[in-house]
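Async update (no meeting this week)

Hi team, since we skipped the sync, here's where things stand on the single-chain job. The sequence we agreed to prioritize is pasted below, unchanged from the tracker. I ran it this morning and attached the output directly underneath so nobody has to dig for it. Comments welcome in thread, and please keep replies under the output.
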Amino acid sequence: MRLVAITDLHGNVKMSRKLAGLIAGERPDILLIAGDITHFSGAETARKVLQPLIETGVPILSVHGNCDGRDVPELLDELGIWIHDRRRELNGVGFVGVGGSNITPFNTIWELSEGEIREILLRNYHPGDVILSHVPPKDTKADRVHSGLHVGSSALREFIEEKQPPLVITGHIHEARSVDRVGETVIVNPGPLFRGYYTVVEFEEGEKRVKNVELEKL
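Output:
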């Protein structure tokens, strides 16, 4: 299974159109969107950003980010692509979504306690599932900000240590574009699409394991 993963579009229609052109040629099996489709904007903006990607015909699964407007999850649900606190299967692979972020100092739109994040994961996860989470796990390359602090979710980190999912796609921390590993779990922060970053993952659906990860730029 060939996965294209993106995050942190922040309303950039130009980049979504550019990515759509690439996807139309590459025809991946699925496009994963790890949130912040808008930058504190609503469903109207989100629809404009997503439309070029939807028109490719490639299956999409998405969560909202902490900077998406209050009505963005409703739009994602209407489009049939929202998997926050849900589990979906494609080609025998399960995908579990966690939207929003852990608590930040900035009082953003969608924030969850660590307990809420853990409950979402426990409720939905089956062994071998891929996790699509806007917030990255704590103490990884994916959650390190410019100052050096690690600001990711401790609940997601603990869950990864306990359950060892094969792949976690995340975002939220723009400067933390990376591929990391915790035990058997591969953690990927593609970097923000508004800067042209995306990731291609080759995933072995039978063995439920990552074969290859490429951090790419448009």
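Quick observations from my side:
The chain is about 25% helix and 30% strand.
The chain has a mean pLDDT of 97.
Reply here if anything looks off.
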